Amino acid sequence: MNRPEIHVEVAPALHLFVPHARRAGATLLATDGVSTLGHVIESLGVPLTEVGTLVVDGHEVPTSHIPKAGETVDVRPVERPQRVPGAPLRFLLDVHLGTLARRLRLLGVDTAYESTDIGDAALAARSAAEKRVMLSRDRGLLHRRELWAGAFVYSTRPADQLHDVLDRFAPDLHPWTRCTACNGLLEEATKEQVADQLEHGTRRSYDVFARCTECGRVYWKGAHHDQLAAVVERALAEHG
After folding, report:
1. pTM (2 decimals)?
2. pLDDT digit string (tens) for 83-141?
3. Residue 1: predicted pLDDT
4. Is residue 195 very low, low, confident or very high in pLDDT (cuts 50, 70, 90)?
5. I want to staple 65 with a disulfide (CB 3.0 to 4.6 A). Which of 7, 37, 95, 163 is the partner?
6. Which residues pair with 133 in a beta bridge?
């Protein structure tokens, strides 16, 4: 029996996920007649986290649609800003995205981060349990059904990663309110309250401090403040 054939066109923004042969307009694809369109798209290499709408012969369809012979399918990327319903916007990052995690926290974005490789199953379970958007460059992880929500991080450069995440999700920014080490909230602290955690030179040179309510880490405007402030200012100018 001949397998049903459909024409599939993947949007340019998603080309990096598919073989080169499928990047030149609509291409022919044989299906098994029973798999959903979502499964068909994933079989091409495209995580459904990156798919905004699926349009069949001019009409939007759900991922549960069963393709029929002769149909033409347009695979479109997510619209920006992407809204994640049902929970406050929170993120979970895998072990490879530590710099991005620290920069999101610097901007006051609720960002959990695993500094060790706990495995895809555990990451997906945490995403679901805490209702966090999983950010990763691991395509296999983003295919897991347990995820609450997810997104592929397209760049390897932290500055570009940050820009892309802020552009895609448009989270509220509250700079200098979260601990970059543990994601806890910061509170103002007097010099006297944190004196036992400071070196003598720091006690002598600085008067304004903040302390993490979770891990107790102390912050002040030290040698790296100008560099961090530049990250914050750029983010606010482009996405604030």
Report:
1. 0.94
2. 998 889 999 999 999 999 999 999 999 999 988 889 999 999 999 999 999 999 999 99
3. 54
4. very high
5. 37
6. 91, 149
Cα gap 209→197, rounded to integer Å: 11
Residue with the two structure tokens 């459909």: 6
- From the number of C-beta atoms within 10 Å of its C-beta (0-12, 13-18, 19+), residue 184 rates as middle
Alpha carbons within 13 A on the beta-carbon side of 234: 15
For residue 30, give Cα distances in angstroms to 5, 45, 149, 212. 4, 15, 29, 56
DSSP string, the chain: -PPPEEEEEE-GGGGGGS-GGGSSS-EEEE--SSS-HHHHHHHTT--GGGEEEEEETTEEE-TT----TT-EEEEEEPPSSPP-TTS---EEE-TT-HHHHHHHHHTT--EEE-SS---HHHHHHHHHHHT-EEEES-HHHHT-TT-SEEEE---SSHHHHHHHHHHHH-----TT-B-TTT-PBEEEE-HHHHGGGS-HHHHHH---EEEETTT--EE-S-TTHHHHHHHHHHHHHHH-
- Which position has the higher pLDDT, 178 or 21? 178
Burial zone of 52 (CB within 10 Å; 0-12 exposed, 13-18 middle, 19+ buried):
middle
